[in-house]
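The instructor's notes for this session suggest beginning with a concrete chain rather than abstract definitions. Hand out the sequence below and ask the class to guess, before any prediction is shown, which regions might be ordered.
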Amino acid sequence: MGEARDSPQRRKQYLVICTIMAAMFFGACIASGVFQPVYITEGTYPGGEFIYLSEVRDYSAHMALFRKVAGDLYFKPKTEWGDLLFGIYMDEERNVPGGKMRYSVGTLLDKDEGLSVKPLLERFDGHATHAYEKANLPSVRAGMVHFPFTNGFVSCLTHQYKILPAMQKYAKQHGVEGTIPIMTSTCSIKEKMCTHYIPLEKSEMFLLGKTPPEEYSSDLYSDIAQQNAKSALNTGKILKGLKKLFSGKTKVSRESPSEL
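After discussion, reveal the predicted structure:
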């Protein structure tokens, strides 16, 4: 006979497995900086010509676009990306419905480093599988922070729910009047570290020609309200039709009791 499912030996095995999994998760949290404070200092965003792809999804999925761009540029998945690939995150998570956040990922060329990357771009122009766009980003005063990076799921969540809100708050407090809190990041797989910037001036140029966040959010919720109204209208029509179908008409007898 097999061992009972609730036997002491089985319970001990489950406990060991759960302990190992909890330890692994805790280790990932430590490596990703979950318990580490976000120390922001003022620095300078490098600026340059930005060749990029854009996507609308949840920020936690942004590394997929990094890998897509790296593939088009013939970077191997484990190749060093630091200061070559940058992500730009345009919306505040609290103001946009889930899965509707806008971000772009591409390569940033400056006057000093552009020559080393241009051969890649010449190949990408003829062989890339996606439609790239180009923009010139200014070198500007920016809030800056270095933060641990593991290239894993916990790092993506830390990026979205810890670093991004802190950087956006900093931009609102220290940026020039009208600053749009748009964060841009570059991550080094080799050094296991990301450098995050948030421009404190000329932030509108980091929208890459897209709608400002407040207008984008307003349009999104307006569309959702219209879709909900149409859905409610269609549901009402269906229920009305079903009511007619199943209710029918009640016939009332006009015969007198004596005729029955």
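Then share the key points. DSSP finds five helices and eight strands in the chain. The longest helix spans residues 213-247.
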